[in-house]
Amino acid sequence: MTAVQQFNTTRRAFLGGAGGFVVAVTLPVRLRAQGGAPGDAPRPFDPNAFVHVGADDIVTVLVKHIEFGQGPWTGLATLVAEELDADWSKVRAEHAPSDPKLYGDPGFGVQITGGSASIRTSYDLMRKAGAAARGMLVAAAARAWNAPASDIRVENGMLIYGDKSASFGSFADAAAKEAAPQDPPLKAPADFRYIGNPDLPKLDTAAKSTGAAMFTLDVYRDGMLTAVVRHADKFGAKVAGFDADAARAVPGVVDVRQIGSGVAVFGRNTYAALQGRKVLKVTWDESRAETRSSEQIATDWLAASRERGAVAHAQGDVDAALAAAATTLDADYVFPFLAHAPMEPLDAVIAPAEGGGVEVWLGSQSVTIDHQTIADACGIGMDKVKLNIMLAGGSFGRRAQPVSDFAREAAEAFMAVGGDKPVKLMWTREDDIRGGFYRPLSGHRLRGGLDADGRIVAWEHVVVGQSFATDTPFESMLIQDGVDGGLVEGASEIPYAVPNINVSNHIMRGPVPVLWWRSVGHTHTGYVVETFIDELLEKAGKDAVEGRLALMSQKNPRLAGTLRKAAEMADWRAARPADRALGVASVQSFGSYVTQVAEVSMADGAPKVHKVWCAVDCGIAVNPDIIAAQMEGGIGYGLSAILFNELQLGQGGAIMQSNFHDYRSLKLHEMPEVDVAIIKSDAAPTGVGEPGLPPIGPAVANAVRKLTGEPVRRPPFVRSMTA
Amino acid sequence: MWNALARACALALGLAALAACGGTEVSAPPAPENDGPSEISGLKTPAAFAGIEDDEARAAALFSEMTKVMFHPRCANCHPRDGGPRQGDDMSPHVPQVVRGDGLGAPGMECTACHGASNVAFATSEGSIPGAEPWALAPASMGWIGLDATALCAQVKDESRNGGRSLADLVDHNTKDHLVNWAWNPGDGRAPAPGDQATFGALTAAWVEAGAHCPG
Amino acid sequence: MAISLKVNGETRSVDAAADTPLLWVLRDELRLTGSKFGCGIAQCGACTVHVDGQARRSCVTPVGSLEGREVTTIEGLKGDVADAVHAAWAKHDAPQCGYCQSGQVMTAVALLERTPKPAPADIDAAFAGNICRCATYVRIRKAVADASDTIGG
Hints:
- The complex is a heterotrimer of chains A (723), B (216) and C (153).
- Chain A has 723 residues and is an alpha+beta fold.
- Chain A has three domains: 21-204, Aldehyde oxidase/xanthine dehydrogenase, molybdopterin binding domain (Aldehyde Oxidoreductase, domain 4, 2-Layer Sandwich); 216-287 and 346-426, Aldehyde Oxidoreductase, domain 4; 294-338 and 438-708, Aldehyde oxidase/xanthine dehydrogenase, molybdopterin binding domain (Aldehyde Oxidoreductase, domain 4), CATH 3.30.365.10.
- In chain A, a hairpin with a 2-residue loop joins strand 6 (158-161) and strand 7 (164-167).
- In chain A, helix 1 (72-84) packs parallel to helix 3 and helix 16 (544-552) packs antiparallel against helix 17 (557-570).
- The longest helix of chain A is centred in the first third of the chain and has 23 residues, at 123-145.
- The two termini of chain A are 51 Å apart.
- Chain B has one domain.
- Chain B has seven helices and eight strands; from the N terminus they run αββααββββββαααα.
- In chain B, the strands form four sheets. A two-stranded antiparallel sheet of chain B has the order 1-2. Chain B has a two-stranded antiparallel sheet with strand order 3-4. Chain B has a two-stranded antiparallel ribbon with strand order 5-6.
- Chain C is of the alpha+beta class and 153 residues long.
- Chain C folds into two domains: 2-76, Beta-grasp domain (Ubiquitin-like (UB roll)), CATH 3.10.20; 80-150, [2Fe-2S]-binding domain (DNA polymerase, domain 1, Orthogonal Bundle), CATH 1.10.150.
- Classes of the chains: A alpha+beta (723), B mainly alpha (216), C alpha+beta (153).
- Chains in contact: A-B, A-C, B-C.
- Chains B and C meet through strand 6 and strand 7 of B and strand 4, helix 3 and helix 4 of C.
């Protein structure tokens, strides 16, 4: 982000015409051209951030990113409040409405939340918005008090001049008439009061602790039907026919209709719909279904990994270096399909609205794509769709939909039952676990070489898997020259200085829909790189921390900084009880740098993770407590997957898991203690929603290898129980 | 056809045994000579053992037959010797993790947090969550996962470990107890224990009648 | 059929089949939406309410089984323990997405009502049936311990 190029205000009615004023800011944004190449053309007339100051003193920040726990409501409000000098107790956050012109992501060109980008893309933008609002309030006060603007102080939601003082609200209407400052000055970091404050309370905690917070599932409309959909048991299967007699006979079942994704049962209430679905008979055409087992897919992927694929990164001559190496290490890795399993099963509410339009309530992450998809499915223009973005009960990538699967399903269900009454689409946990859009199954082949002095001289890595960009609007952006950035990120640029490197990929195709999953490619590449380097260092007789630092300090000093810090926190060299071991891993992802050290023992053949020390460098720490929480959460979510999770297809392609009894989630008693240190930095802030995850798997794996002598190259550590 | 007939006979025998257990004097069920040996759903009736003349041997064989029920996952899953119940036919640790507490679970996570007075079918899928009133773990002293039939038999007879039950109490428990009965009415998605409660009760009564000797 | 149900101190009459899970009666009929649907099979704890003061998964509780019982939902929580739990949740900013937190709070209150001074193992045991996919567990643990410190002297 650079300086403000255009700066406009709008005074459009705020949320139905309440008093006060609204500020909008435009920063130059880099549009992605249709062909995928980033362009430099700014969008000069699109305001893309809003702050509202009300006559009631309430400052409302409209947040362009969906809040599902990663903290953008508090984070973006912090940026505004800082420059506005607002009273934090009067600050509120709401989701911005769907409007790609106003709220589009500078990278994707659509309104979306992803890539741990909310703070990164908002840091300048939202501070400018706060500063502009402050300037307008000051101007209004200066006019009323006949005082020079420069002599008016702003403190904690109050405007002060000599013995005069007034709250923001008393000048809200007057401020609306003032011109927005064209280039409002921003504070020096030394003057920050909210940014970097670890004690700033989150804005959404109270409502989320009392049951008051409204999620999509909590939306009820008069006359609303609840729809549940019978989906196929195999990916790629299509409805061949269905018998709805028994379903229709269930009291409260109103209708049964085929839609694109299956057969929808509509009930006057949830239980009726569920009972109806239980007795619905559907026959499936499996002629184009995935009939391979996940075991077979893994075998196929590993077979492909024998050959080098499309090259993502190459330097030196890896073949010659391997041939000349004194010692070599070969390793195959397989990572399973993973479901995201957000706590709130996927859902949407859609209702007829005035003028032939619809109103939608949706935990929408790919806002613009969802908006367009719903409009298309309803046969109306986007301007006829009012999309309310709801708090969502988690996502972990699942809601960031390139093809809007469940938003489309909701719109199709709404239309199938007449398009004239509200419909709530609800997925059950079974629908979610068995619904696809998984983290892709991947296979990896690694070959490493050491010279006679124990230096790592060769590194070859072949990554094999499906791309979630295939056949989506993101394809041209993410796949270039046969290389899928989402597949090889974290592998193509390792933090270690190795002279001869070759990293390539094979993009496979298959009927199982796949998707980004919290930290995307780093979920598997981070594991591979960090366990393989650990094994190579051990072969070379080097300490895991010192050996990494020697290869990383020059090439990636910020990552090295987190490694030094985490090792210090864990007292890396101190003796441990005989049954415990430490493992370490460092991964840079989404512009942030994280090292974790895990203390592990084995119990009944499974790792028990006692404690994790985590050091993170994410530039300027806007909300230290949210950063810590995201590290804790990334560790817990990652540990759950690495210990327990594997979505399996059995013989014939049948999906094996269905709910939390066989797709096991980490519980409180399995959660390690976590200590987080945030590296002090003046660099621009980067995201934390995803970067806390990648190191935990390899850190635990490296500790387990010390305890058992065996590398774990095919997680999960504890096979999921199958029902 | 023969099976149905045998089943009906066995059921009648079992009911006779049940009636016989009502009094303080426990009497052995009648022992038909040649037409009686039969079983109900994988559990032999006492008649099947009538031909064993030696009391000790007959008692041991009867008890071994009883263990088909007692070691069955429907029974054994809630008779662990350690901290928590098992589940499923593979007797895997209960998910979610449950600790014994006072036998009714932990404060905040009692057995009754999930298990009610009867089996409840899941609304969202096939299957059910089991229930009976009360739903509880057997005390650890009555746990038998991992024991063999000999050790189990000794434990079952030991009043310091069996909840202070006399042999007659054991017969009564096995014949009538509501929670024991659940093993044959486990709800959708679970296989019942072999036989039925009446046959299990009759086996227990016959074992006691034969002297309650244990398998060697 | 009409079923009478005592929820949060009030007797309510609802038109529902006796086998309807309490969760859907609370949500669809009474619009008490604080109790969440997460799994439907008593595996996640998001639907936790109190029945006669004890934690209970409403997704597997037939509404017809509650005659003469007192149901308390997150909306009806009150008292010193509930206040202490809410204060501790705020102090530690426990929630992330927040969807499971009604259930977590209900479990915390049920635990502390019966065991005001829980050992770490008691907290582990009580929360073993409450999933948080955001893994806010570190904070829940601290918040429960804090709440314990502030109740009953």
